[in-house]
Write a structure and sequence with these properties.
Blueprint: E1 13-14, E2 19-20, H1 33-40, H2 49-63, E3 68-72, H3 79-94, E4 99-104, H4 107-121, E5 127-133, E6 136-139, E7 144-149, E8 159-165, H5 171-174, H6 177-191, E9 195-204, H7 213-219, E10 227-230, H8 256-266, H9 269-275, E11 292-294, E12 302-308, E13 319-326, E14 332-340, H10 344-362, E15 366-370, H11 374-387, E16 393-396, H12 402-414, E17 418-421, H13 426-435, H14 443-456
Parallel strand pairs: 3-9, 3-10, 4-7, 4-8, 8-9, 11-17, 12-15, 14-17, 15-16
Antiparallel strand pairs: 1-2, 5-6, 6-7, 12-13, 13-14
Helix pairs in contact: 2-3, 3-4, 10-11, 12-14
Length: 468
C-alpha cells in the first residue's frame, strides 16, 4: 500500500535547541529513522557527523543487535532531541503496541520530554483520548509512553524500550553517596524489573562520578552486555568519528575557541560535562605530580596509624589503615598503607597483626579508628578496642563531609610537604587520591586525612579518646 501524506496547520514548537513546524506524514513501517527524522523535523539540522553516528547505533537498537546502549555526550549537542524525544515516537509509529519508559532525574524534566514527544506523536500516530496525561499517554493500539523521575515507582505494564536521560542533576548529587544509592536502587528495583523479554535500554548521562549509575552498571555482571558510545567535545585518542586530537565534536555550534572559553569558566567540571571524564586528567583535589616517592623516612617521627573500616566484605568498600609520620620540621610521610576487603573476623586479625608489626618496627604507634554511625558502628569500634588490648588505641566519631576532612591533608600535599615511602601500595594510593572526590573509592583518602589531622594538631588540642 502506497504511503500518503497529510499536512496540517500546526503551531511551531520550541525545542530549546531549534524550532520546527511538524507536519503529519505517514511513513511505512519499513522507513528508516534517518528518513523519518528529516521528514518530521525538516528545519532541524540532522546531518552533523555525531548525530548521524548516533542514529547508526539506534538502528542497531531497533534491529535488536544492541540491547544495552550507553551514550555520553556534551550538553547542547542534540542528543536529547534525537534520542529521548523523537526516537521513541518513531518506534511507536513503527509499532503502536510498543511500551516505552523514559526516565530522568526528576518528574519535571521528564514531563518536559514527554510533552515534546507527544506534540510530535499527535502528528504521526493515532493516540488514545482515554489516556493522555503527561506522565503517561497511549496510542489507540495500546502502546504507551511513560515518563518517570528518579525514585518514582513504576507499576502496571512493563517496558519494551527504556530510555534514561540524565539520572543525575549535578555534581553535588553525583558526589552524594546517598543519592547515588538512590539512583541505583531506582534502576535495579523499579526500572530493571519492568523490562519485557527482549527489551532495550538506552542510558544517556554526564559522567560526574566513577561510581555513578553508568559506572556501577559497567562494574556489574551486566556490564559486558553494554555498548558504550562516548563522544567528547574535544576529540581524544581512538575517536569514534575519526577526528583529529582536539577537534571539536560539532564545530558548527561550538568550535575549539568556544570550547576553550567554556573550559575557562567551568574549570574541572568541564571534563565531566564536555569530555565525559569524572576525574580531570591532572587529578581532582590531589595532583599526581605532588607526590615524591622516597626510599626511606627519618627514624625520629611522630607516627599515627588511622583505620577506616568497611562495614562488610561484600559492598565494595575497603578497610584501610594508613600510617603517617611527622618530623620535627613539619614534613609528613605516608609510611605504609594496609588495604583489603575482609570479613569482620579477617579485618580484626589484620588490624592486630599490623599493630604488632608497627610495634616491632617503630617501638609503638598511636592507633586511631573512625567510628561509623549507629549501633553497628559502636559495636565494631568496641570490638577493635578489645582486640587491641595493650596498644594505644583511640576512637572518634567524625563530622563533616569527606572532602572537607581531606582539605588540610590536600593543602600540605599541594605544598609538597608530604612524601610517600616506596612500597607496593604506592600506585593504587596515588590513583585513588587523584580521583577523589570523583572516584569509586575514598577509603585511602579517609584514612590518610584522619591520620594527618591527628599529627597536624598539637597534642594538647587533640580530642580525648572515647571511653567504653
Amino acid at each position: 500500500m502506497e504511503a500518503t501524506s497529510l499536512s496540517l496547520a500546526l503551531p511551531k514548537v520550541n525545542t530549546g535547541l531549534f524550532s520546527f513546524a511538524p507536519t503529519k506524514q505517514s511513513v511505512p513501517n519499513g522507513g528508516g529513522f534517518d528518513t523519518w527524522l528529516h521528514e518530521v523535523s525538516p528545519s532541524l539540522t540532522w546531518d552533523w557527523a555525531h548525530l548521524a553516528y548516533i542514529r547508526r547505533q539506534l538502528d542497531r537498537v531497533t534491529t535488536g543487535e544492541i540491547k544495552r546502549l550507553m551514550l555520553f555526550m556534551p550538553p547542547r549537542h542534540g542528543k536529547t532531541e534525537q534520542v529521548t524525544v523523537r526516537y521513541p515516537v518513531w518506534r511507536l509509529k513503527r509499532d503502536p503496541t510498543l511500551h516505552v519508559i523514559v526516565g530522568a532525574y526528576n518528574q519535571t524534566l521528564v514531563n518536559r520530554f514527554s510533552r515534546k514527544a507527544r506534540r510530535i506523536a499527535e502528528t504521526q500516530i493515532d493516540l488514545s483520548a482515554d489516556r493522555s496525561a503527561v506522565e503517561e499517554w497511549e496510542t489507540s493500539m495500546g502502546g504507551t509512553f511513560r515518563a518517570v523521575g528518579v525514585g518514582s515507582g513504576i507499576t502496571g505494564q512493563g517496558g519494551d524500550l527504556v530510555i534514561i536521560d540524565d539520572p543525575v542533576k549535578s555534581r553535588e548529587e553525583a558526589n552524594s553517596e546517598t543519592y547515588r544509592e538512590r539512583v541505583w536502587d531506582w534502576y535495579t528495583d523499579d526500572l530493571y524489573t519492568r523490562l519485557e523479554p527482549g527489551a532495550a535500554i538506552i542510558l544517556i548521562m554526564t559522567r560526574w562520578h566513577e561510581s555513578d549509575l553508568a559506572g556501577r552498571i559497567l562494574e556489574s555482571e551486566d556490564g559486558p552486555d553494554w555498548t558504550v558510545i562516548s563522544l567528547p567535545a574535544e576529540a581524544e585518542a581512538n575517536d569514534p568519528l575519526g577526528r583529529e586530537l582536539g577537534a571539536a565534536l560539532c564545530p558548527e555550534r561550538y568550535d575549539v575557541d568556544a570550547l576553550e572559553r567554556i573550559h575557562a569558566v567551568l574549570g574541572n567540571s568541564y571534563y565531566a560535562l564536555y569530555q565525559q571524564r569524572p576525574t580531570p586528567p591532572e587529578g581532582g583535589m590531589f595532583k599526581r605530580h605532588w607526590f615524591e616517592i622516597v626510599d626511606n623516612a627519618p627514624r625520629q617521627l611522630q607516627r599515627v596509624r588511622y583505620w577506616d573500616k568497611a562495614g562488610s566484605s561484600d559492598k565494595g568498600d575497603y578497610t584501610v589503615g594508613a600510617l603517617l609520620g611527622r618530623d620535627a620540621l613539619g614534613q609528613f610521610y605516608v609510611l605504609d598503607v594496609v588495604r583489603g576487603q575482609w570479613s569482620a573476623l579477617e579485618r580484626e586479625t589484620v588490624i592486630k597483626q599490623t599493630a604488632a608489626m608497627d610495634a616491632g618496627l617503630y617501638g609503638g604507634v598511636t592507633i586511631w579508628q573512625e567510628q561509623e554511625p549507629g549501633s553497628g558502628g559502636l559495636e565494631s569500634a568496641q570490638a577493635t578496642v578489645r582486640n587491641l588490648a595493650g596498644y594505644s588505641i583511640r576512637t572518634e566519631r567524625v563530622t563533616g563531609d569527606k572532602a572537607t576532612r581531606a582539605e588540610p591533608f590536600a593543602a600540605q600535599c599541594g605544598a609538597l610537604n608530604v612524601r610517600l615511602v616506596a612500597g607496593a601500595w604506592n600506585a593504587a594510593y596515588v590513583t585513588e587520591l587523584c580521583a577523589f572526590p570523583y572516584g569509586s573509592f575514598d577509603d585511602q583518602v579517609d584514612a590518610s586525612s584522619g591520620a594527618f589531622n591527628k599529627l597536624a594538631v598539637p597534642p594538647r588540642r587533640r580530642p580525648t579518646s572515647k571511653a567504653y
